[in-house]
Amino acid sequence: MLRKELTESIKRFLECFLILVGIPIAFLLDRLIIKFGWEFKDLFLGLFYVAVFFYSAYSGITILQTEKKDRALEYLLSMPISRSKIMLIKIFSRLIILIFCIFILTFLVDFKTFRMLAIWLIFLFFISVSFSMVIDSIILGIIGISLIFQVFLLNSRILNFLVSKTYIESSLDHLALLSPVLSALLLLIPFGISFWLTFKKMDVKPIKQQIQPYYYIAFPALVIILSFIILNYKNYLNQ
Amino acid sequence: MITVNELTFYYGKKEIFSHYNLFIPDGEVCLITGVNGVGKTTLLRLMAGVLRPKSGEVKFDIEPGEDPRQKIGFISDQLSLYESLTLARAIEFHESIYKIANFNDTLIQHIKVDKKQKIKELSAGQRAIFHLSLILSTEPKIILIDEIIHSLDAYLRKVFVNQLLNVISERRPTVVLVNLNFHDIEHLVDRVILLKDGKSLVDENIDSLKSKVKKIISKEIPEDFNVLYQIDFQDHSEYFIYPYEEEFKLRMNGELEDLNLTEIIGAFIGGEYAQKGIN
Lengths: 239, 279
Fold this sequence. Notes:
- The structure holds 2 protein chains of 2 kinds.
- Chain A is an all-alpha fold.
- Chain A has helices spanning 2-17, 22-28, 30-35, 40-61, 65-69, 73-77, 83-108, 111-132, 138-166, 178-200, 212-237.
- Chain B has helices at 40-48, 87-98, 124-136, 154-171, 206-212, 248-251, 261-275, and strands at 2-11, 14-24, 29-33, 55-60, 72-75, 142-145, 174-178, 191-196, 199-205, 214-218, 227-232, 237-241, 255-258.
- At the A-B interface, helix 6 of A face helix 2 of B.
């Protein structure tokens, strides 16, 4: 099972990193690019960001895609393997490739940016996994995840604003990661619990009949976070 | 052994089973049938563990702590497999999950496929035979087969049924078949269960069922005969009677005919449609 899942993850990785094929083309256009003041390294980094961000979301949202596309869910669920083990193998095989990408980032960006990017990428991956259960269409999934990611970023900024107001006297460097981590956890915990409760009981019934945990855990949590953002947004703008 | 205990299951708000009970002893070959949408496939999926009941349970005779699915070979009506895998990879995957390494490719020699072929390139019949070889490689104690035999051509159907017959005579697994085409499997079956409204309308040993369902060809029959289904012709009618009793012979005019399994189930199902006003 691990081998099959790893092969699939590598396929997804290659699909996302096909974007790097653009590099030789970009190289040929180098002279034109230079005219605009860009450098080849900037272009590579930009494309790498796009690819790695896209991989985190895509590999997460498509975690059950093979089973859906191949109509193999019934076969998989009839096998003597627990649902927790299925999901752990699926997550692990995708996560190690993501961690490899994050490792590459350590050579490309400074430490502060790296820390933030790592949190963003891991958040994006896990929120996409939890979305994979609710949304069948990949395009709708990617749109949904982009919106959630915006909520996460906005919530991080507002939390950072509130934290910096509280700890105005102290050095803020050690608190720099607090708000994104807190913001990520506030979204990941309810979505993760909803995902797990749904997946633990998942069977071959239509998926719409199985996602009640999202209705009474994830979506109310999202509404609370959105309300929190709306309530504090004016103060944040006036800072 | 399969014990279905107080099983309740819903699809959305639609109740399919309510406190349904069933016991299938070791080594029995059981046919589940009924009109479309009655819950045959649902019952099989509940037994296979791919659907979960709202309440109640399906129990198997297994060691404590053992996963019952290790002992179950299930072929769904969707012939669900990883279509994008090659046969070789699918075999390897199946063996890795069941922790076995004894896939026997005798059966797939009949379908003349290359193991480098992808499953999605196989026809329905080839997939059914391949799926059967996969599940038999694990030597299951319980075999659950949904309605797939009809998708096989005459030759593959014979291969499929013969292989099943061999396994039944060699290892005596418990077999549950869901089918609407009974001609090919009649000689395999020990017991027939006909579902209606989430209950077993008929649950009989096949010989007992054959002795209880008879066709009477006559102009008319006594009113107290329970007619399952009736076909009218210009000068006579065919009455399918259940339960038939020996003393009926003395009270009727006309011909009495024995029925095969296809005709028996056809009479029950025809009767159900006639009750709904569909002829």
